[in-house]
Amino acid sequence: MTERKPPGMSFETWVEGQIAQGMARGEFDGLAGAGKPLSSRALDQTGYEWVLEKARKENLDVFGMLPPGLALRKERDDLPRRAAALPSEDAVRALAEDYNARVREFWRRPQESRWSPVPGLADVEALALQWREGHPPRPAPPVEAPPVRRRWWRRRS
C-alpha cells in the first residue's frame, strides 16, 4: 500500500515520484502489451464500453457495475431461469420472497436520482405455477405386495 501524499507537495509531483519508485523496483517490467501502440479501436471507445469489454475479458460480474435499481430489474427478469433449476416449489417461493424483500428494502432507501429505475416485485404465485408446469409430479414408486408365506407342511405336497 502506498503512503499518503505529504502535505505541501503537489499531486503531480507525488504521483511521478510513485511511478519512478515503481520503475526502480521493476514493477512495470514484463507487462502485457508493453511497447505496443494502443489499437485504434480502443481510441474510439467510450469509457463505459471499455469497462464492459475489460470486465468480459476478465470474466467479471457485470451486474455489479449496474445501479441498484437496474440490477434488481435484471435479476427479476432472470428469476424464471433460476427458479427452473431449483429442486422444489418451496425453494422457488423462498427465492421470490427473498427478491421481494430486497426490492422493498430498496424502495425504503433514498435514491441518488429521481430518474433512477424502480424495480417491481416478482409474482410469487406465477413463478410457482411456472415451476409446477415444468416439473410434473413424479409418480409414486410401485408398492410391491409382501410375499405370501406358505406353511412348511404345505410345501411338502
Write up this protein:
With 157 residues, this protein is mainly α. It has a domain at 66-134. 53% of the residues lie in helices and 0% in strands. It contains seven helices and no strands. It has helices spanning 11-25, 40-44, 47-57, 68-84, 89-108, 124-134, 152-155. α4 (68-84) runs antiparallel to α5, α4 runs parallel beside α6 (124-134) and α5 packs antiparallel against α6. The longest helix is centred in the middle third of the chain and has 20 residues, at 89-108. The termini are far apart. The mean pLDDT is 84.
The biggest sheet, with number of strands, parallel, antiparallel or mixed sense and barrel status, is:
none
Q: What series of H and E elements makes up the topology?
A: HHHHHHH
Structural class: mainly alpha
* Mean pLDDT over all positions: 84
Low-confidence stretches: none
Overall, the morphology is: elongated
Per DSSP, the total helix count is 7
Number of strands: 0
Please compute the radius of gyration using only Cα atoms: 31 Å
Terminal Cα separation, in Å?
A: 94 Å
Please estimate the helix content: 40-55%
Percent range for β-strand residues: under 5%
Which helices and strands occur, and which strands form pairs?
Elements: H1 11-25, H2 40-44, H3 47-57, H4 68-84, H5 89-108, H6 124-134, H7 152-155
Helix pairs in contact: 4-5, 4-6, 5-6
